[in-house]
Design goal:
46% helix, PDH_N, Alpha-Beta Plaits, binds 1,4-dihydronicotinamide adenine dinucleotide, 6-phosphogluconate dehydrogenase C-terminal fold, Rossmann fold, binds 3-(4-hydroxy-phenyl)pyruvic acid, single chain, 16% strand, 3 domains, globular, 360 residues, amino-acid biosynthesis, alpha/beta
């Protein structure tokens, strides 16, 4: 699997046994590697240990690789500590790369700095802590590897081995370019979700009762930990502010188009949204493939969803994504199966012939 890369043989030390750290630890344990855990919270180490993610670290451990997975503001300090304490390769999984690199470079020798290679898995969730961890978290996800100019190539290779072992796709990037990229594809979307969700907080119950999948899709990440996101946004303020300025101009143009009844301008703005969603690469980094949603009513009984998935499998159509919405007051769930566009009609017809109620 990691043919041209140095072998990850362990021990692996994880500093910060939360969502991301414990997920990395679970992958490494699944590979049979020795994993040692450190965390400012003894309880999180206990919880992660209980999940089978490794054991508590001791002063005599000699890790091959240290993975720093603490909140953004604590990353530089934990990386410096790991470089001073061990002779291991050290990576971190923080969401922003330039500011921690500058802080580490100011505090360690060039020889120690050569063993530090930043990285960033583009996977996670709105939940935090070890109980939200999963060894499958990184499957098929991009994972940026952001070496500085003087990084040891063998250290870069070892970090890429970890990424590949986690089932993710390593993407090598310059730290500053990475920060501009995540401002666009992660930090701005997060803030957009927060602004939309903020309009719901004190909304009348009768408005909220109409909520469907659209509002849930657009607001999901707004449920994330505010303290974590404050630190992410502070660490990437420059790139985020540039984009927010562009969005402010877009918002002015949008308000003018809506208020002036300027239909053509409004269509242009909406069409830019179409172009943006089409530009997002497909799963596994491939080109975006057009998909279509197929809606199926599923009785609210044990085993019905499994039967639907089983039927789709027998029909030979791959389900790219799935959403389930409950029909208020009726014992059915409306299930949205997202499938390759060219397969949707075949799936609909075959499900109907097996007795499923579909909606076009
Ligand atoms: N949450 C997400 O979806 C993603 C987060 N990240 C990055 O991963 C890092 C960790 O995030 P999560 O796992 O979500 O957070 P988390 O809150 O689940 O875990 C952080 C852990 O670090 C511990 N900790 C805090 N300060 C520490 C210190 N000084 N020394 C040792 N342990 C310390 C906490 O007790 C906690 O167990 C962050 O830098 C974040 O930017 C990266 C990709 C996705
Ligand atoms: O939940 C999601 O979809 C996310 O996008 C989570 C996430 C949060 C922070 C990151 O730096 C990377 C990914």
């Amino acid at each position: 699997m990691t043919d041209d890369l140095p072998a990850l043989t362990g021990p692996v030390e994880v500093v910060g046994a939360g969502l991301i750290g414990t997920s990395v630890a679970l992958v490494c344990r699944r590979l049979g590697l020795e994993v040692v855990l450190r965390d400012a919270s003894a309880e999180n180490v206990r919880t992660a240990t209980g999940l089978g993610a490794g054991r508590s670290a001791t002063a005599t451990d000699r890790p091959q690789l240290v993975v720093v997975a603490v909140p953004p503001a604590a990353i530089a300090g934990a990386v410096v500590d790991a470089l001073h304490r061990t002779d291991a390769v050290v990576t971190d999984v923080g969401s922003v790369k330039s500011a921690p690199l500058a802080a580490v470079a100011a505090r360690v020798s060039p020889a120690d700095l050569a063993r530090y290679v930043g990285s960033h898995p583009m996977a996670g969730s709105e939940r935090s802590g070890p109980l939200a961890a999963s060894a499958a978290l990184f499957d098929g996800r991009p994972w940026a590897v952001t070496p500085h100019a003087d990084a040891d190539p063998a250290a870069v290779g070892l970090v890429e081995s970890l990424v590949v072992e986690c089932g993710a796709a390593p993407l090598r990037m310059d730290p500053a370019e990475h920060d501009r990229a995540v401002a666009r594809i992660s930090h701005l979307p997060h803030l957009a979700a927060v602004l939309v969700a903020g309009r719901l907080a004190a909304a009348p119950a009768e408005h909220l009762a109409l909520s469907g999948q659209g509002v849930r899709d657009v607001t999901r990440v707004a449920a994330s930990d505010p303290a974590l996101w404050q630190q992410i946004l502070e660490a990437n303020a420059g790139a985020v502010l540039d984009l927010l300025g562009e969005v402010r101009a877009d918002l002015d143009a949008l308000m003018a188009a809506v208020s002036a009844d300027a239909g053509a301008d409004l269509v242009d703005i909406l069409a830019r949204g179409n172009a943006g969603t089409a530009a997002i690469p497909g799963k596994h980094g491939g080109p975006a493939r057009p998909t279509r949603s197929v809606f199926v009513s599923v009785p609210d009984h044990p085993g019905e969803l499994a039967r639907l998935f089983g039927d789709a499998g027998e029909i030979g159509v791959n389900i790219e994504d799935v959403h389930i919405d409950h029909d208020p007051g009726r014992p059915v769930g409306l299930t949205e199966l997202v499938v390759e566009k060219g397969r949707a009609e075949h799936l609909l017809a075959a499900l109907e012939s097996r007795g499923w109620t579909t909606h076009r």
